[in-house]
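As a warm-up, study this chain.
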Amino acid sequence: MNSMIIPVRARTALVIITMIAGIVACRHDALEDLVPSSAPGSVNVDPSTVPYATLSEYGLFQGALASLDPHPEVLPYDVITPLFSDYAKKARFVWMPSGSRASYAGDHEVLAFPERSVLIKTFYYDHVQPGDGRKILETRLLIRANGEWVSATYVWNAEQTEAYLDMTGSNVPITWMDEQDQMRNVTYRIPAGAECFTCHKQSGVTIPIGPKPRNLDRVFNYGEGDVGQLEKWVQHGYLEPGYPASIDRVTAWDDESEDLSDRVRSYLDMNCAHCHGEQRHCDYRPMRFAWELTADPVNLGLCVEPDEQILPFDAYIVSAGNVDKSMMHYRISSTEVSERMPLLGRTLVHQEAVDMIADWILQLSPPCN
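Now compare it with the structure written out below.
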């Protein structure tokens, strides 16, 4: 659908408004809790021609593209526990065509999205050196087109004015100041199409990972205080009402007030279950890390011998009370491509999660042997 023609005076006013919005947006250190503002124009998603060559062609954002100011029909959201991506921050949005909405399919199932839906996730770092500014690296789209999910990765230019379709994969060196005021370095990996498919496949077809009720059942600030996300989706016309009042939701992995075991289960669900599941990339391994399956610790690998011993001594996937003989801890602590877990999506060690999992292993009993 083509954008409507705007009179000259209206265009001038719109430019002034969006410039002000862009200046305000740059004063914030994070892109979370973005709220759409009023703007003319239409979101453009044609299943017969997507993916487009540039991100701006979709009309998902208004004003300066890098402000990530969503079109009024585009809804920001977040998940309870996110995927670790080398400490990159993420801004998530969803769009659905007018008159259509997603439906509940189960606490642990991806919502049933209508045709032409778009899931949007942008990866960025704050306090990037030199300059101490924000750098947006990529925006990934999952588009529901002709009954299937189409993935598209858009790589941002150096000027931060446009993002271009690029499914070949690339590496971007980044130096940034982290939240503890420590200088960090990473060679950030923008995945190729085959890498995206590795994690987003089930039974040979592309699927989303995050938008399940168990991950979405949280509050989000839409500009007027915290609101339940699922409730907001219903109000916005994006979700059919009638979903269960009580959902078996995951735990925020970094919330130390929550049960340690549940925090570990939640972290492994988001970071590992997309490969370690039925008809997934690593379904030949014995672990099953989905949240609803790990109440049984055997599915976490507790006292389960690995099918591939890479340590110089006998070990278990999780050895109760013994971090050094736990293959899980070894793999999440490694950056070697042949040994690390997850294989894709990270090159750095997520030290905070490694420490949490070590604490969990140490409190498990009795010993495996």
